[in-house]
Amino acid sequence: MDDVSEQMEVRRKKLLKLKESGYSLYPNDFRPSHLTSQIVSDFGDLPDDQLSTLQTSFSLAGRIMGIRSFGKASFFHLQDRKGRLQVYVRRDRVGEEGYQLFQSLDMGDIVGVWGRLFRTKTKELTLEAQGLRFLSKCLRPLPEKWHGLADVEVRYRQRYVDLMVNREVREVFERRSRIIQLIRRFFEERDFLEVETPMMQSIPGGAAARPFITHHNALNMDLYLRVAPELFLKRLLVGGIERVFELNRNFRNEGISVRHNPEFTMLEFYQAYATYEDLMALTEELFVTMAEEILGSPKVSSGNQTIDLQPPWRRLALIEAIEEYGGAKGGEVTTMERLRQYAQKRDLHLDTGLPYGNLLVEVFEKVVEPHLIQPTFVMGYPPEVSPLARKNETNPALVDRFELYIGGRELANAFSELNDPFDQRDRFLQQAEARKAGDELASAMDEDFLRALEYGMPPAAGEGIGIDRMIMLFTNSASIRDVILFPLLRPER
Hints:
By secondary structure, the chain is of the alpha+beta class. It has two domains: about 5-140, CATH 2.40.50.140; about 165-315 and about 375-480, BirA Bifunctional Protein, domain 2 (2-Layer Sandwich). Helix content is about 35%, strand content about 25%. The protein is built from 15 helices and 18 strands. An eight-stranded mixed β-sheet has the order 6-10-11-18-17-16-15-14, sandwiched between helices. Strands 1-2-3-5-4 form a five-stranded mixed beta barrel. A hairpin with a 2-residue loop joins strand 12 (about 300) and strand 13. Helix 6 (about 160-165) crosses helix 7 (about 165-190) and helix 7 (about 165-190) packs across helix 15. The longest helix has 22 residues, at about 165-190.
């Protein structure tokens, strides 16, 4: 029997002994009057003489984290959802029965305790217990060195333990919740309407991504988990909802990495009578608002670097970026043949069966993306990789689109929307040809979306922002798994 199994057996025996002594093993009638944080904020600075005269009795509930015993007296830290507070347990205060109960408890057990405040000789605010209530048994021993585990997958898989023993992990997810609240407020203050669109779709669209497939039994039809809500949100522009946003879950049947999880959260928003340039200004405003609300400064830390979100942010054309960071000389990547020669010279392994525009973006991601640390809008994308974007008026070989890069990661994608139903049909047909040629990520024809455009969609711009990556930025997290409570993992053996 290993050490964990032995400890679990000891804890089970303690639980059975409590049952034999008449204790309810999982009661649900204890109501705490305070949180640890309330006590610390309200009474932590009181002088000792005032603290000793308080007549208030405080009751707390939480998990035992650390026990120090000294014969007839013991200390432990009680942890609730807001923090920790030291508790002092004396035999002559809680009584013989209460102290025997305490001696049968283990680290990790959940208890209720009530008593009065005092400050120890080491000046730590402490609750002197006058009574103790057993609420739930921790049958598995808590890890001693959880945060330093080499196999961090165990922490992701057992997030409940990770949250229990690592306060900084809980703070990441508290900040995540706060950021999402601020995003909602930001858009609602600008007259955007929040909506919900289908997660199961008969035609996957709105992004170049491989979908997950499911089956609806009653209708006997395959459905796809959405890769993006874009085409439904633009239908709402047609319907007259001129400013719309959705905080949505997307599902893409692709690889897993420190930047990718198959299920992720996306913000998408659309604004009528706006261009992608208008959204650049709105995006700068959004990120600065988040930084000042969350961090109190437009500067954020990313690894060992400092990122300054103060606008204006740099604007950089795609080909210019490859020339600047990838060493390509003027005109060296402007045709398919030159691009292949450049990739061969740089020893870049590309999928040469893709169209020129797709290969250009692939080269960009390999040679440029890691260098874009400070906020940068990359523009000048080819239509092949932007089938839903409006062509540039002065250079139809490009579309009005930007991608936002911060900290070497793509965080947002936006463009002036294509609202010409004839052009959109041609783009869908081109995508269909690309699909026939083997491009599994090419967009599918969506006749109902084309019908919506035929009713007339106002000129507009739209944007998608990866919420998980935004959270990574504002929590200085290196992996997307650090900001998703339960990331996808292989099943345990």
